[in-house]
Amino acid sequence: MPAAAAGASMDNSGAQNWIEDFTRRFGRAPRILHVGNVAGNAYQIAKVLNAAGADCDVLSADYYYTMGSPEWEDADFSGDVGNSSYPAWYRANLHGFGTPPLVCRRATPPGHCLPCGKAPGQ
After folding, report:
1. What is the DSSP letter of 96?
2. 17 φ, ψ to 5°?
C-alpha cells in the first residue's frame, strides 16, 4: 500500500450510502468498469468500491507494466520478474497470490463487454 494511503483515515460512508441507495432503487449493485490501470489506480479504486458493495471490474487490455499489476500492489512476492514493461510474474514466487477476477488484461471477445468473460447483464 502506498505510504500516503497507509496512514490515511478514509471515510467511505458517502460512497457506502450511495451504493445502498442505488441498490434499493434498482434492485442491484451499481456496475462500474474502469478502463485502463495506470499505476494501479483503477485496481485500488475497484477494490474499495467492491468492498463497499459495488460490482466493479478493471479492464487493462494489453497493459502489463509492473506497477500497474495487482501482483505489485498485493502480492508479497520474491524473485526477479525481468522486464518491468512485460513482467514475467510466473518467474517470481507470489506466495499463492493470483490475479483477482475483477482484473482483465486481455481484450474481450465480441459480445462480452466486461472483464474476464462476463456477458452483458451479468
Report:
1. T
2. -65, -40
Secondary structure of residue 103 in the 3-state scheme? strand
What residue type is 46 in one-letter code?
A
Helix (H) / strand (E) element for 50: namely: helix 41-51
The pTM of this model reads 0.74
Q: How many helices (H) and strands (E) does the chain have?
A: 4, 3
Residues 6 or more apart in contact with residue 43 via CB below 8 angstroms: 34, 37, 58, 60, 68, 70, 73, 102, 103
Given the C-alpha cell 506466495, which residue does it identify? 95
Quick: pLDDT tens for 62-108. 788 998 899 999 999 999 999 999 999 999 999 999 888 888 876 65
Q: Output the nine-digit C-alpha cell for 42.
A: 483503477
Provide the edge-to-edge strand list for the sheet that holds 103-104. 31-35, 55-59, 103-104
Q: pLDDT tens across 10-60, in order?
A: 565 666 788 999 999 999 999 998 988 888 999 999 999 999 999 999 988
Number of Cβ within 10 Å of residue 32's Cβ equals 16
